[in-house]
Design brief:
The protein has 312 residues and is of the alpha/beta class. 23% of the residues lie in helices and 24% in strands. The chain is built from 7 helices and 13 strands. It has a 6-stranded mixed beta sheet, with helices on both faces. The structure holds guanosine-5'-triphosphate (GTP), magnesium ion and zinc ion (ZN). Magnesium ion binds next to helix 4.
């Protein structure tokens, strides 16, 4: 019996790497159910698995998936109750945002952050493509970094193309397992290439002409850097459904809103319309940002059917 970490999954094949750095293509023996959640993929990148070699062709059969320390998921389709596990056993998530080509909205950032808060995965926000920012984007960069840093999120401005701050990002990742997320075209694969010359991950060659990404990366895959970091490249995501949480607890995952909410008059205040709400007062007094509060309200207003309740 061997044990290894799943570094790639494509359909029914899972690529597993052992501590000795041997790599095997494995299939799963039978059916697995993890934590009772209905997932489209029973095994995800980052999972530790037990397997044995069955064939002369050196393929493996996975017989056990170790308990996950944590994982991040997305809805597999908009209305389906199924979820897709993007990655498991993550130390930190790196959200790549760009203020130009394409522009990442604060709504997308906030949705990502609350999901990560719910899974208790710390996040660093990387603002990429700073080499093409003009005066306007640079002013916005300062403001947006100040906003998210003041809430407590680590933020770094980078350029995967010029290498600006790439060494700093790589240094932070040493000996950790990290996942890189963000819209298509923001430079996830370019950044990993910059941290690991010679890897030659496929990147979109022409998207600088277009604003939208073209989904160049199609499978989630883990790469090992020369400083012991395990970096997971993911396909671009369009949206981020709010999953695994009750409506009444959404504000718990906005750290600055949660902090102030202790002073609301009503213990069950939702901070939407109640009198003597400390959160609304803080927004008026600019102690909580308008954009964060507006995004909170939009998420609260969403159709209930679009969300699901804690499935386990
Ligand atoms: N100017 C500039 N362009 C960049 C930077 N980083 C990436 N790009 C360009 O952005 C385009 C998309 O980069 P990718 O690395 O393929 O983006 P991705 O996030 O991996 O996209 P998907 O795989 O589709 O999710 C490419 O044309 C890159 O050259 C940067 O820092 N500055
Ligand atoms: Mg990519
Ligand atoms: Zn309130």
């Amino acid at each position: 019996m061997k044990t290894g970490i799943v570094i790639k999954t494509t359909g029914s094949w899972h690529t597993v790497k052992t501590a000795e750095k041997e790599v095997f293509d494995c299939k799963i023996k039978g059916r697995f159910r993890i934590n009772g959640i209905v997932t489209t993929n029973p095994v995800a990148v980052g999972d530790y698995v037990d397997f044995k070699i069955v064939d002369e062709d050196q393929t493996g059969l996975i017989s056990k998936i170790h308990d996950r320390r944590n994982y991040i998921i997305r809805k597999s389709t908009k209305l389906s109750k199924q979820v897709h596990v993007i990655a498991a056993n993550i130390d930190r998530a790196y959200l790549i945002a760009t203020l130009a080509k394409p522009e990442t909205s604060t709504m997308f950032i906030d949705r990502y952050l609350i999901s990560a808060e719910a899974y208790r995965i710390p996040v660093t926000i990387l603002f990429n493509k700073t080499d093409i920012y003009g005066e306007f984007e640079n002013e916005y960069l300062k403001a947006i970094m100040h906003l998210y840093q003041s809430i407590g999120y680590n933020c770094i401005d980078v350029s995967a193309v010029t290498g600006y701050n790439v060494g700093k990002v790589k240094g932070q990742m040493a000996n950790k397992t990290v996942v890189i997320s963000g819209h298509s075209g923001v430079g996830k694969s370019t950044l990993i290439n910059a941290m690991h010359p010679g890897l030659n991950l496929k990147i979109d060659s022409v998207s600088s002409l277009h604003k939208k990404g073209k989904h160049t990366t199609t499978f989630t895959e883990m790469f090992e850097l020369d400083n012991g970091a395990f970096v997971i490249d993911t396909p671009g995501i369009k949206g981020f459904g709010i999953i695994d949480m009750y409506k009444e607890e959404i504000f718990h995952f906005f750290p600055e809103i949660f902090k102030v909410s202790k002073d609301c008059k009503y213990y069950n205040c939702t901070h939407v319309h109640e009198p003597e709400c400390a959160v609304m007062k803080a927004v008026e007094e600019h102690r909580i940002s308008q954009s964060r509060y507006q995004n909170y309200l939009s998420i609260m207003e969403e159709d209930e059917n679009e969300k699901y309740r804690k499935p386990f």
